[in-house]
Design a protein that fits this description.
With 286 residues, the protein is an alpha+beta fold. It folds into two domains: 139 residues, no CATH class; 115 residues, Hypothetical protein yfbM fold (3-Layer(aba) Sandwich), CATH 3.40.1760. 39% of the residues lie in helices and 15% in strands. The chain is built from twelve helices and nine strands. Strands 7-6-9-8 form a four-stranded antiparallel sheet, with helices on both faces. Strands 2-4-3 form a three-stranded antiparallel sheet. Strands 1-5 form a two-stranded parallel sheet. Helix 1 packs parallel to helix 6 and helix 11 runs antiparallel to helix 12. The chain is elongated, with a radius of gyration of 21 Å.
Length: 286
Amino acid sequence: MQPFTSTEAEPLLRAVSKMHPVTLVEESPFAAFSAHPRICLLYNAQFVGLSSAMLWFDGKTSWTVVSDLPRCYLLAGLSWNKGLTQRFYGAEAQQVPHFEAGLSDRENQIPKTPEEFREWAIEDMPRLAALIEEKLNLEHKLSLGVEVSAESLELPLVEDSAGRGNQTANVYLVAHPEAFLQKRTPTSPWDRLLHFWITDDEYGRLFDLLHGTAASKRDFQMLARIAEQGVYGSLAFQFGDVVVLAAECEVIAGDSNAQVGEIVKKILQVCRSAMAYNLGLVVEGN
């Protein structure tokens, strides 16, 4: 399913542009949102606030904002999933009116084709736009502009790829990891979310290897940080740490007995991407 054009999404884009100028951009070739009706925008931190307003929308579709630096997506889902949002929004979601749909209700709320799903999202946009303006006090503000950019946001030396397997942690290339974690905004024009990382199973295998002997953990301190953190919490690696991490991966990749060669090759691929632009890393689990 293709993302919406500026014409199709005009009501929603007009509302969003009252917060900040909007630029529609090309999607990443590795993003995994093709099943969703969606709008792909150049990221701005103000757009994250849209999610709290979208929670209140009562339509055939439900909407949320997903960060995919340097982009973000306005994604449409099925409205009967709204009850699941309390996992992500906590107490705020408790105030949102929703119901737990039964099976027969769900069958009535599932589009028969991707085209119908897309049509539902388009039908919902005017009311969603009005709700956003009401909730965010934008009704009397003017649009700050909507433009379309055909410029590629891919960096030639970043080795990105589509993720596979049970991957529940994300990795960001960022110039200032600590600042990124504090403010949740890009810290340079080169900050990027990569679309692959080691899987949950691979975390376990890496942990087992590095805790096999005391020497392993001592000699591979950066890899041990990754393995011990697992899929929970956040880790920040400064550029110097990335250089050390890459060196540790090179050692293990050259050891045919390590049995984690493919795992460290993935991490090394991330390190090369970061080092090409003098960036650090943020590894963030659920």
